[in-house]
């Protein structure tokens, strides 16, 4: 969980900085907008698909607010044609205790992986329900004062509740219905965005979910 999205500034000299995208989950076109944005990110940052694609959902199913990442991961692995590896699900979450271990495993398994990170965050009251897509790495644990390694070449974050005080209590008392709806939209955006970038068609059972 992060308080605000952390954008890494360590890009190659010839990198065309992509702007952060930010939409509310109730926007009827949120999946289309985010998937198109993800396609553009992937087209610029991994144009020849030479880097193996990995999605990492960060968080734990033991905290309602912090379950966004694992919910996204579980949704993605349910798509039979999703052309990427997924780490961090409800059954096998990636959290503070095993994040470094999972990152080492990914780097040992895939040569120079391209990682899409997903995490929950806390923010201002008027931003709750907002989903962001940003270039660079995110810094998990910053919102609860934990020092953890930065994760991702690009990242999605979902503002699930208000930050600034008693963060653990706030996460525990976040509405599951909100987190689930946000997770569904993020998962669909990743699914459709990746397929668009790879020039693939959506699985028939998923085509209607926009």
Automatic annotation (TrEMBL):
Taxonomy, superkingdom: Bacteria
InterPro entries assigned: Pept_HybD-like_dom_sf, YyaC
SUPFAM superfamilies cross-referenced by the UniProt entry: HybD-like
Designated name of the protein: Putative sporulation protein YyaC
Lineage of source species: Bacteria, Bacillati, Bacillota, Clostridia, Neomoorellales
């Amino acid at each position: 969980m992060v308080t605000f999205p952390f954008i890494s500034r360590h890009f190659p000299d010839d990198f065309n900085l992509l702007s952060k995208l930010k939409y509310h989950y109730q926007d009827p076109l949120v999946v289309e907008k985010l998937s198109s944005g993800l396609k553009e990110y992937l087209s610029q940052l991994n144009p020849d698909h030479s880097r193996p694609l990995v999605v990492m959902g960060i968080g734990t199913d033991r905290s309602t607010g912090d379950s966004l990442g694992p919910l996204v991961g579980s949704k993605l692995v349910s798509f039979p044609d999703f052309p990427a590896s997924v780490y961090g699900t409800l059954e096998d979450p990636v959290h503070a205790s095993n994040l470094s271990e999972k990152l080492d495993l990914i780097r040992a398994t895939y040569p120079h992986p391209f990682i899409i990170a997903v995490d929950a965050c806390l923010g201002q009251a008027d931003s709750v329900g907002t989903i962001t897509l940003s270039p660079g790495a995110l810094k998990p644990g910053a919102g609860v004062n934990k020092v953890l390694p930065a994760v991702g070449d690009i990242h999605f974050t979902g503002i699930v509740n208000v930050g600034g005080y008693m963060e653990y209590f706030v996460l525990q008392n976040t509405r599951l219905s909100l987190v689930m709806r946000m997770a569904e939209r993020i998962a669909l955006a990743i699914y459709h965005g990746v397929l668009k970038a790879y020039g693939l068609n959506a699985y028939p059972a998923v085509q209607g979910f926009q």
